[in-house]
Design a protein that fits this description.
Blueprint: E1 6-12, H1 20-34, E2 39-45, H2 57-74, E3 82-85, H3 91-100, H4 105-109, H5 112-120, H6 127-130, H7 132-141, H8 155-172, H9 213-222, H10 234-246, H11 249-261, H12 266-280, H13 282-292, H14 295-324
Parallel strand pairs: 1-2, 2-3
Bound molecules: tryptophanyl-5'AMP.
Tryptophanyl-5'AMP (TYM) binds near residues 46, 136 and 188.
């Protein structure tokens, strides 16, 4: 029998607000994985990554606590998972620097997320944004994981992490595993206003976990479903995709039948979906409000998790420093 635990690592940036894309692409898997006693999960709020795009200190400080409350209200359990703050564990930035020195500029230039964010923030294309993937690789490899549950948009970053691990192992001897995404088919929830693009943390097109039922109805009502080329539009596919995750089995059967008969009414689909999503997150919204009323406990919980993470991270960093000739 193999007693070795599977290690899982994943994280999110405390910028903007979490949406159902983040939930389906990442958190749902995180929760499933933490409930298996054969797994050891590390879930972190990557506050250093939040500095790579424009931010304000007051809002960032608040966001970190807001994200901590979100993690806990969704069900991340600090007794089962190591739940922590990236900047509390200094090993992340040290290893990121080491990885920077192993990463050709050309590889970082190819990252589509860097290109997209550079376009959005043309006045602030900073070196941190450029090196985002090497810090992410450190977040991951410090814990030597088997799986990294992330959405489809992070595939390229994960590939860079695997390359770094391979390169390091070839030069200095086996040190890191080459972690894989957890989902067999990674997933991408689309924007409501432009369903050819992914749902992202900013803008009206994202259904936020914090949205009230009224807000969810309002946003879904406006969701674009028009098609330009006949057949099913990307908007319709996106709404049906959401229905398979949040609707009841009867809802799914009903709307697929309507689709097949060509009698699908978008207003009806949107109405049902809005109700299901609002109900799905009702308990979460209550729990989060309660947690936010005790910010000291949130900070304490992060501090405790960070202490546990540091124990593992410092061991790995020591091993790396010895291998590369530092110390
Ligand atoms: P972030 O905060 O942008 O996204 C958090 C997670 O949500 C997923 N995601 C989506 N999944 C499906 N559909 C969407 N529309 C959608 N939008 C976002 C992302 O894939 C991600 O899994 N770089 C990471 C943060 C990070 C990280 C790490 C992750 C830093 N270090 C180490 C894993 C391990 C990010 O973009 O997070």
């Amino acid at each position: 029998m193999n007693n070795k635990k599977q290690i899982i690592v994943s994280g999110t940036r405390p910028s903007g607000k979490l949406h159902i894309g983040n939930y389906l692409g990442a958190f749902r898997q995180w929760l499933e994985l933490q409930d298996d006693p054969d797994n050891k999960c590390f879930y972190l709020i990557v506050d250093l990554h939040a500095l790579t795009t424009p931010f304000e200190s007051k809002i960032l400080r608040h966001s970190i606590l807001d994200f901590a409350a979100t993690f806990l209200a969704l069900g991340i359990d600090p007794n089962k998972s190591v739940f922590f703050l990236q900047s509390h564990v200094l090993e992340h930035s040290t290893l990121a620097w080491i990885f920077n020195c192993f990463t050709p500029m050309g590889e970082l230039e190819r990252m589509t997320e860097f290109k997209d964010k550079s376009k959005l923030n043309a006045a602030n294309i900073n070196a941190g944004l450029f090196c985002y993937p090497t810090l992410m690789a450190s977040d991951i490899l410090l814990y030597k994981p088997t799986f990294v549950p992330v959405g489809e948009d992070q595939t390229q970053h994960l590939e860079l992490t695997r390359n770094l691990a391979r390169k390091f192992n070839n030069k200095f001897g086996k040190t890191f595993p080459e972690p894989k995404n957890y989902a067999l088919k990674s997933l991408r929830v689309k924007s409501l206003s432009d369903p050819t693009k992914k749902m992202s943390k900013t803008g009206d097109e994202a259904l936020l976990l914090d949205d009230s039922p009224t807000e969810i109805h309002r946003k879904l009502k406006k969701a674009v479903t028009a098609t330009t080329s006949g057949g099913k539009s990307p908007g319709e596919e996106n709404l049906m995709f959401l229905l398979t995750h949040f609707g009841t089995p009867a809802d799914v059967v009903y709307f697929i039948e309507e689709q097949n008969k060509g009698t699908l009414k978008f207003s009806e689909l949107k109405e049902t979906l809005a109700k299901r999503i609002a109900d799905y997150f009702a308990e979460f919204r209550e729990k989060k409000k309660e947690l936010l009323s005790r910010p000291e406990e949130l900070a304490e919980s992060l501090g405790e998790g960070s202490r546990k993470a540091r124990e593992v991270a410092s061991r790995t960093l020591l091993e790396i420093k010895e291998k590369i000739g530092l110390l």
